[in-house]
Structures are given as C-alpha cells and as structure tokens.
Amino acid sequence: MARRVYSEPGDRIVSTAPVAVNRYRGWTRLNHWITAASLILLALSGFALFHPSLYWLTGLFGGGQTTRWIHPFIGIVLVASFVLLFLQLVKYNIMRREDLVWARRFRDVVSGHEDRLPELGKYNLGQKFIFWGMFWLILVLIVTGIMVWEQYFGGLVTIPTRRVAILVHSISAVLILLVFIIHVFAAIWTRGTLSAMTTGNVSGGWAWRHHRKWLRELAGRQKVDPAE
Ligand code: HEM
Predict the structure, then answer these.
(1) What is the C-alpha separation between 194 and 198, in angstroms, rounded?
(2) Is position 169 annotated as part of the catalytic site?
(3) Residue with the nearest Cα to atom 25 of ligand 1?
(4) Closest residue CA from atom 23 of ligand 1
(5) Strand partners, 21
C-alpha cells in the first residue's frame, strides 16, 4: 500500500525569534510607574491617618506630622502624573460597540474562550472600566482632598461641608484601592500582560489573542519582519 504523503518536499519548520509588539514607550512606562508608586504611598499615608490602629504606618514617613504634611503633596504628584497618562491613553479608552458584546460574553472571557469574543482594539471593556474608574475617583479624591487641606485652604468650605468631604474622600479611597487590586490582579491573571509595562513589549500571540484589531492596524502600518 502506498504511503500517505501530507507535505511537499520543500516544507520545513523554521524557527525564528518570536514576534514582539511594542505597546508602551519608555516615557509612558515611567509615567505609569510614577502614578502607581504615588497611589501606593497615598494609600499607606492615608491609612496611617485614617484610624489609630494604623498609626504605626506613620513610621514609614518619619512620624505623624510629616505624614499629615506629605500626604496631600503626594496627591498632587498622583494627579499630575495621572493627567499625563490620561492624555496619552484617553482616545483608546472610548467605549465602542464591540465592548457591549464583550461584556455580554464575559463568561467566555473568564473561561479563556477568546475565540468567541469580538476582535478588540488596544483595550477591552475591563481595562476601560479601570481607566475611567481611576479617572473619576482621582477627581473626587483631589476635590475633596483640597476641601480638607486646612494648611492652605482652611476657609474654603464650612465645617459641616468639610465633614461630608472627608467622608466622601475616605469612601473614594477605599473604592480606588478596590479598582487598583482588580487592575493588578487582571494584569497578572492575563498571562503575558505585565511585560507591556516592564519591557514595553508583548508577544505577537498575546496581541493576536487579546487585541486583534490593534495588532491588525499595526501590521497594516508596517512590514512585519518575524526574524527581527
Ligand atoms: C503596582 C501596581 C500596578 C501594576 C502591576 C500595573 C500593571 C499594569 C500593566 C501590566 C498595564 C498594561 C496593560 C495593557 O496594556 O494591557 C497597566 C496599564 C495601566 N495602568 Fe497599571 N499597574 C499598577 C498600578 C496602577 C495604578 C496605581 C494606576 C493608576 C492610578 C494604574 C493605571 C494604569 C492605566 C491607566 C493603564 C493603561 C490601561 C488603560 O488605559 O486602560 N496602574 N498597568
């Protein structure tokens, strides 16, 4: 019996370097990590001021007085840094029709059936939710923070208003920490994502799997050299 043949004589497996796709420039990564560091420092100094049982955290900032003094200034750094990040990324975080389909098929997202999901641009709805969640919460935090920043804005609002402001400030701080935890968890859970913010690159496979429209656009813009 004749042997079955599936391949041509010229077919061969060629191993080339995997395709890497650049997702963030160095400047954007630096901007992101300054934002992240300031939020972590704000959380630590904020918790230190929040409840006496957490007062020991002031030790990280050189005592109670310096913690109280430095907390709002770190807030200013966060706002300035987030504004720069926001301006760079806002146009890729606008809601699109495919986001609704993605949300409806969220079960497929969690179970890893991405083949059943629509092709997406640079961000999915989850990432957009993080982006806008952080935007609104940072806005509320800075506005209420200024209202209770007695050193420079002491007479700005009445004492009853200041009481409401501090309550809203604390609730928003808890909410932004939840958003932050979801963000870090999603970045770790979606394998291959962290390198986007460390080296700046993701693999071609990651881009194809999670953000195919974005990859198609990049591929259309340039000649892809897999061996590069
Ligand atoms: C240490 C904790 C953090 C880690 C490990 C982390 C990790 C990452 C990673 C891997 C990405 C790239 C995701 C992608 O391109 O698909 C990213 C994007 C981003 N991160 Fe973080 N991040 C952290 C903290 C923060 C904080 C505190 C903020 C804001 C207050 C933040 C805001 C953003 C924004 C706005 C993006 C762009 C995504 C978008 O625009 O939708 N990150 N982060």
Answers:
(1) 6
(2) no
(3) 36
(4) 36
(5) 202
User: pLDDT class for 228, splitting at 50, 70, 90?
Assistant: very low
Q: Which CATH number fits domain 25-94+116-218: 1.50.40.10, 1.50.10.10, 1.20.950.20, 3.40.30.10?
A: 1.20.950.20
Q: What is the pLDDT of residues 99-110, one digit of tens each?
A: 999 999 999 988
Using an 8 Å Cβ cutoff, are 21 and 195 in contact? no
Question: 196 in ligand 1 pocket by Cβ < 6 Å?
Answer: yes
Q: What is the pLDDT of residue 174?
A: 97
* DSSP per-residue string spanning 71-107: HHHHHHHHHHHHHHHHHHHGGGSS--HHHHHHHHTHH
**Domain layout of the chain by residue ranges:** 25-94+116-218
Beta strand pairing status for 20-22 and 201-203?
A: antiparallel
- Given 32, 71, 169, 183, which residue is catalytic? 183
Q: What atom in ligand 1 is closest to the CA of residue 210? A: 16
| pLDDT attached to residue 223 | 58
